[in-house]
Amino acid sequence: xxxxxxxxxxxxxxxxxxxxxxxxxxxxxxxxxxxxxxxxxxxxxxxxxxxxxxxxxxxxxxxxxxxxxxxxxxxxxxxxxxxxxxxxxxxxxxxxxxxxxxxxxxxxxxxxxxxxxxxxxxxxxxxxxxxxxxxxxxxxxxxxxxxxxxxxxxxxxxxxxxxxxxxxxxxxxxxxxxxxxxxxxxxxxxxxxxxxxxxxxxxxxxxxxx
Length: 210
Description:
By secondary structure, the protein is an alpha+beta fold. It has helices at residues 5-12, 22-40, 124-138, 199-202; strands at residues 47-55, 61-62, 68-76, 79-80, 86-89, 94-97, 108-115, 157-163, 166-171.
């Protein structure tokens, strides 16, 4: 789960001592984590000892789970590769052979690493969206106390348009002030209804390299 249960409850205004809804929120959090990762096409939850195998495409290669924490092993065509022969952009989640410009084109590459956001290091916009979406999925609206009538917690909608089966949604949020307060348009036609209010945030973490 992307956030700890205590953090989710705090963000939803649920008393930490109230454990009545812990099971429902935990189950919802696991589902929402899968939704977020599926939409972003990237692993967001912190995991260790992840192994990925791929044919190196030439230069830069994005790993599935990001940000990258530590690379513990790298193999090139089954042979150990010194990790210091790789440039690792931890924040963006990609690796590249050194010196830059060299490549392992067509080589089978295996990397073992740890990555993803630790619960206490999830960016605020992502953490807030996750808690709200988990609350909606678990039966609680934005800022609702336990037992309150659920509401669809989300940032205020500024624009809403339909086109070619997709929904273009813009949200008025402080974190997008540099773009006039509008997050832009996103194809959320395949997203679960509970997820659709949060795609403006998720798009900042969505894979861009495919």
